[in-house]
Amino acid sequence: MAAVFALLAVLVPFLGCGVILVFRRRRWVTLACTGISFGFLLRLISEIPVEFSLYMWMNPIRIEVLIDGFSLVFALLISFLFLLCAVYSSYIKSKRYYSLLLLNLGLLLSLVFMNHIMVFYIFLEMSTITTYFLVIHNETEEAMKAGFKYIMMNVGGALLILSAIFLGPSSLASFLFVTGCMVKAGSFPVHVWLADAHPAAPSPVSALLSGALVKVGAYSLLRFAPSFGAQSSVIVYVALMSMVVGVFLALIQTDIKRILAYHTVSQMGFVLLGIGLQSNLGLSGSYLHLINHGVFKALLFLCMGCVIYATGKRNILKLGGLKSVMPVTAAACLIGCLSISGIPPFNGFVSKSLISHALDSDIMRALFLITCAGTIASFTKLFRHTFLGELKTKTKEIPLSMKVPLLVLSGLCVILGFFPGLVFTLTGVTPEYTVWNRSCLVDVLLAGGLGIAFYVISLETKIIFRTPQLSIVDKFFYVGGKTVEYLSELLNRWLQLDINYYAIIMITVLVLLFLLWNSW
What we know:
Blueprint: H1 2-20, H2 26-43, E1 50-55, E2 62-67, H3 69-88, H4 95-113, H5 117-135, H6 141-167, H7 171-185, H8 192-200, H9 203-213, H10 215-228, H11 232-251, H12 256-277, H13 280-311, H14 327-340, H15 347-356, H16 362-387, H17 400-418, H18 421-427, H19 438-461, H20 472-495, H21 499-519
Antiparallel strand pairs: 1-2
């Protein structure tokens, strides 16, 4: 029976995608399908672990499905965020948007449950394509450029993973697999697609990008990296660079969505650091921060979506004083800021404390402290210049459907702060450490003091308002992208095919790769 529930949780979004193309009540169909799928996943909690095989139309091809505690928690996070974003999206009327939302949910749940790495890769590529269409939903010049960078880099990352699959366990395969996962996770230095995709995408899509989609890279490492003998030291180095560089780039931004985008780079660094440490404490913190980040970052993106909806502005220099006219959004944003900053008793405090006390060198501890202080400084800037001070702009009323997800996610930030065992009970990874002690509180006070001091000093020098020009890394990918774009145009003139044929060709290639893998 558990296998039936698992299949229904995955199939319902796919069926809903087809129904939307026929019926007009597209949003209500989306709400119903995401809610039903989430309900089936909840039913699986008492059944895990669940393991079964699906046989294709020709033997001996077999798709192995594994639903353990970790994959189920991740699936619950994905499904729950999609449900809340469907509620939030009341102002979006596009049939394409809702059909892509359900299609993406079905693909993500499919890849999470797959224990066959080739099938996992196929669903990974297909979810990349559907996410691309969500990123370019607004069809503005900014969205099209961001979408191009997203698809180019993420397909490239997926091809690295594919190369690692065919090479098998080896040093080269390990390097390729880890690099591909880093691209998916938006880690430094392959993070540049993230900073453009978030501002260009609709706010619910930004919440899903940061709350669920970038987690796939970290999930891939946790699930399949041992098969390739991935070296943990490489992951640790990349994680530390992502933490520091991400928070620095966030500090000097003025676009509210770009600030959050760079914090995704930084916060995913915390997750990868816990994975790279390979200790019980580090992995426990990584598991928990993966979930916590999904919750508070989705909350923050939805809060900023409310700000953009009400004011039509993204630049914090043109905002201010919104607390008086948007009290619910301000309160929810404050909880999100405290959570991501690791302030007790919110959820970010617990997961960051676990990772912090798993560190085994003074250099790591120093970089960890600097990143935490920079995070506090950055979100002090974001909250103060958005919600405090004098009101600078006219606003319009926010619908109730946009406020409800904020309240739910805010409550979850508090609940997971007090009861992190809700996650650990399912994953089966229990840390042998308590975070409610003097050492953890001293760390928070130290990071808070440094963060506030840095904010005050940088405010006087105006450093935090100096958005940099195109970076060297960005230029590298821009030139590479233009080259690919030019070659693609030449190929398109030769083939003269539309996007539907391209999609069919890509899916056919993926199926052939799967068949080849099973016959190898």
